Amino acid sequence: MARQLPPFEPVTQAQLRELWITHSDHNTRRLILEVERYRRVIAEVDTLYKTVHQAWRDTNGGDLVALHMLKQVLFTERFRVP
Question: Rounded to whole angstroms, how far apart are CA atoms 57 and 63?
């Protein structure tokens, strides 16, 4: 089982941009790109969730528990970053 991360303040978009401008080191920029990629993947997963959820409701009605749990994870992650 993976260890939990210690509490920390998320990096804002403005801070990521500032880091990109002030640090030209290849590894630092790779890390910044990784953070940005992760955020875009989360946004894409959120869009796909909405599509699947609507299809489920249209076909079966109601909510699927696994989709509800996924929605909670996505909501928490999306609103964690200011």
Answer: 7
Nearest Cα residue to 11 out of 29, 30, 36: 36
Q: Which residues contact 39 (CB under 8 A, 6 or more apart)?
A: 81
DSSP-derived 3-state class of residue 23:
coil
pLDDT tens, 29-50?
Answer: 999 999 999 999 998 998 999 9
| Residues 4-24 pLDDT 10s | 989 999 999 999 999 999 999
Q: Which residue is it, tokens 């993976």? A: 2
* Amino acid (one-letter) located at 22: T
Residue 74 and residue 45: Cα distance in Å, rounded? 8
| Ranges of H-type helices in 1-82 | 13-22, 26-60, 65-78
Single pTM value for the model = 0.77
CA 62 to each of CA 45, 46, 49, 52: distance values in angstroms, whole numbers, following the listed order: 21, 19, 15, 13
